[in-house]
Amino acid sequence: MIGLRGLQRSFPAPNGGTLSVLRDISFTVQSGEFLTVFGPNGCGKSTLMSILAGLDFPSGGVLEGAAELKGQIGFVFQDYRRALLPWRSGAENVLLPLQIRGVKRAEQKERLAALVEKLRPQLDLRQPIYTLSGGQAQMIGLMRALIINPKLLILDEPFSALDYGRTLALRQTLMQVAKDFALTVLFISHDLEEALYLGDRVVFLSSKPTSVVEILRVPFPRPRTPDLPGDPAFGALKLRALRIFERCQLDCVR
Questions:
Q1: What is the DSSP letter of 40?
Q2: What's the whole-model pTM score?
Q3: d(CA 1, CA 205)
Q4: What is the sign of the dihedral through the CA atoms of 122, 128, 132 and 135?
């Protein structure tokens, strides 16, 4: 679906020089795959996702396939509170992309009803955003990304501010959504166990200037259940992943 070859992104530095954030990013995103991205804090993961979503542009390298997905990418932001409009209800936030596109009101209602039927979000969509819990607000963000029937869903550390119980529940919801909607998913995670649990492959990134250290295939079949992390085979994979991450940290020192 998407191919990156030697992707680069740099910004003007305060001293008049250039700050290189993404140095050499090369990997592919296969149609229908759940690809997770893991790396040190501040390594440029969000910058990379913004480029793939069309919210930013690379300074160099090749990005294939993204242009063909224009208008078919759903994005769930890390800061769900700032990403939603607090003066609008949950339903009005979900429908915002359709309103911007000029979709007729009758079709908006039909698509919202169909989405609610599939997701069963267990919240009152008539409530304003400021009355919702963190998990409920993030569900609104997910629904807003899905209302356009995307081919690619990008999520930027969407569970980082949620409690453990809500995170576990939303992980299961997300995997079911990916299956039901036949989505290709790109998921940034700051949690190594989460990256392994959700992903078909995990892309490990170094610190800035960022490059790909390794891509690890996750061999466990789907559906995956919450008891998977207790499997000795999962523990062995996590140990291997930790060793890869140590290399990411060494790149940071260099």
A1: -
A2: 0.91
A3: 20
A4: positive
